[in-house]
Every structure is written in C-alpha cells, then in structure tokens.
C-alpha cells in the first residue's frame, strides 16, 4: 500500500491551477508533482492518438473514441477512479519508501508555507483540504515548528473512509 498524499485547491479553475503549478516550479518542486488539470488530460489524449502509453482496449475502445470529447468519457475520475485520474486541482504524491525524496518534500513544504504567508492568501488559504498520508508528509518534510503551525492552522486534514 502506498503513502499517497493529496492536497486540493479551493479554486480549481484552469488559470488558478496554472498559477499554482508555476509557484511549484519556482519552489523547485520536481515536475512530476503538480496540480492536475485539463492540460494533463489533453496530454493523455495526445498519447492515446499516437498509440503511446497503456490504454487497455476494454477501457478505451478505439472505435468509439474519435475526438477529445469522446476520450474524456473514458479518461475521467468517474470512469477510472481518483487514483488514476485525480480531480482537477488535486496534487498527489507518494511519500513512502523514498518514492518522493526528502528534498522534494522539503521543496513542496516551502511552496505551501510561502503561499500561506503571502499577502494574497494571508487570511484565506487557497487549499480546500489535505488527505491521505498528510501526517507522514508533515513528519518528513523538514518543517520547523513555525512551519507546522502555519500549515496546521490553514489546511484542514480530511480523512477518507
């Protein structure tokens, strides 16, 4: 079982997701860790059209997918589940067994703290919630006591049954 950690934005508009992905890049968070967006779906559609990647015929019937709109009926959270296709505005990563390095988690923590203390979000966190192995992330991200206080006061942890 993996230690998947999830952080969800309140505003899941394309513009806001792009803005936060740019902030992640500035914080030197590795490229694989970004908020999921329609841009990701479009990239998967391009892979599908080229025959790159793994798209099982029983889940992606080629004779029924003739457009991007057709593809999104099959490549969706509802069809494949949130593990494979997260909701837009969700950032996920696995913090167990070294799958996300301590340095990557530190950079992600720096992004979170810097966003929370910025004047734009000082009184209103941009994050809807965190979940999964959030507590494990907080233990491993090299957070100071002040960092933890800022995070815990501004991001609520949601447990999933």
Please describe what this structure looks like.
With 161 residues, the protein is of the alpha+beta class. The chain has two domains: 4-37 and 88-158, no CATH class; 45-84, no CATH class. It is built from seven helices and four strands; from the N terminus they run βααααβαβααβ. It has helices at 14-26, 38-50, 68-74, 77-80, 102-117, 134-140, 145-154, and strands spanning 4-9, 90-94, 127-132, 157-158. The protein has a four-stranded mixed β-sheet with strand order 2-1-3-4, covered by helices on one side. The longest helix has 16 residues, at 102-117. It is elongated. The chain starts with a strand and ends with a strand. The model has no long low-confidence stretch (mean pLDDT 93).
Question: Keywords, please?
Answer:
elongated; 161 residues; alpha+beta
Helix and strand arrangement:
Elements: E1 4-9, H1 14-26, H2 38-50, H3 68-74, H4 77-80, E2 90-94, H5 102-117, E3 127-132, H6 134-140, H7 145-154, E4 157-158
Parallel strand pairs: 3-4
Antiparallel strand pairs: 1-2, 1-3
Helix/strand structural class: alpha+beta
Proportion of beta-strand residues: 5-15%
In the predicted model, the low-confidence regions spanning at least 5 consecutive residues are none
Count of alpha and pi helical runs: 7
Overall geometric form: elongated
The largest sheet has its strands arranged as 2-1-3-4
Biggest sheet statistics = 4 strands, mixed
Q: Share of helix among residues?
A: 40-55%
The string of secondary-structure elements, in order, is EHHHHEHEHHE
Give the strand tally. 4
Q: Could you say how many structural domains there are in total?
A: 2
Distance between the termini: 15 Å
Q: Could you tell me the radius of gyration in angstroms?
A: 17 Å
* Mean of pLDDT: 93
